[in-house]
Amino acid sequence: MSAKSAYQMVNRISRRDGVVSVGNRAVPEEVPVAFSYGGSTHAVMMATPADLEDFAIGFSLTEGIIADRSQIESIEVLQTEQGYDVQVTLFNEQADALRARRRHMAGPVGCGLCGIESIEQAVRPIPDVSRSQLTLHADELTTAMSALNDAQPIYRETRAVHGAGFYIPGEGLVAVREDVGRHNALDKLAGAVMRAGRRGSEGVVVVTSRISVEMVQKAAIIGSPILAAVSAPTALAIETADKAGMTLVALVRGDDLEIFTHSSRIEIDGLDVE
Asked: For the CA atoms of 1, 195, 177, 116, what is the dihedral angle to 10 degrees?
């Protein structure tokens, strides 16, 4: 689905610098997107209707439904009157595991952390990325964030969506995805990275949002040892990244940035960081 279908033009009245005018403005679409496995709906997200196959793959990965793209037999995106139903067909072993998981679910859940039934699962253990040997200069992070801002066609038109990118030193941004939801954008990126056959340990996840614990969890599941964001992290996000061996960099704005965990992966001129 193209970027153009992800937003629409609406009428608006504007007052800027004391001048009132009537005109149009681009605003992002926000529609229900259902993920169905074996014909049964698993979760419904409010999302931007773009890159829905990537979204389905990334959501399946970060929610623990699959561990690899090869475990999905097919994906069919169906448009409905209200939104989209993404029908995911799993191969038998994964389908059986998901059915068993559903039988043990205690009841309905909210969409903030989909498919979980306990507090323990909300702060579930995540992959350890401490063994990654990836290092880069701080200037590369500022370059990556600048490139991400320039590679967001929906944001450029609407100024109202989040972006997530995968940056590999020496190659630049190899994937960028956008959505009205920051978690959705990162799930879409996870799907794009997996479909491209790239390893998460090769690069850095960069996002245009704050860093919550879910963003750390998803980046670790992708396999990236470095997560960088334009905004600030929460205390739990810092604690979780530290335990996972992940380098957490936030407030990347212009040449400025702040490193919160495992700073040895980041080289900064004039400063010897341990």
From this structure: 100
- What architecture is domain 31-122? Roll (3.10)
What is the pTM assigned to this prediction?
Answer: 0.91
147-184 as b/e: b if 16+ CB within 10 A: ebeebbbbbebbeebbbbbbbbeeeebebbbbbbbbbb
Q: Which of 78, 111, 122, 232 is catalytic?
A: 111
d(CA 264, CA 29): 41
CATH architecture of the domain formed by 136-267: 3-Layer(aba) Sandwich (3.40)
Between CA 240 and CA 248 the distance in angstroms is 10
- Per the annotation, the verdict on 111 as an active-site residue is yes
The residue-averaged pLDDT of 101-113 equals: 50
pLDDT tens digits along 153-209: 999 999 999 999 999 999 999 999 999 999 999 999 999 999 999 999 999 999 999
Query: How far, in Å, CA of 205 to CA of 209, rounded?
Result: 12
Q: Taking the domains of the chain in order of start, what are their residue ranges?
A: 31-122, 136-267
| pLDDT digit string, tens, across residues 133-147 | 999 999 999 999 999
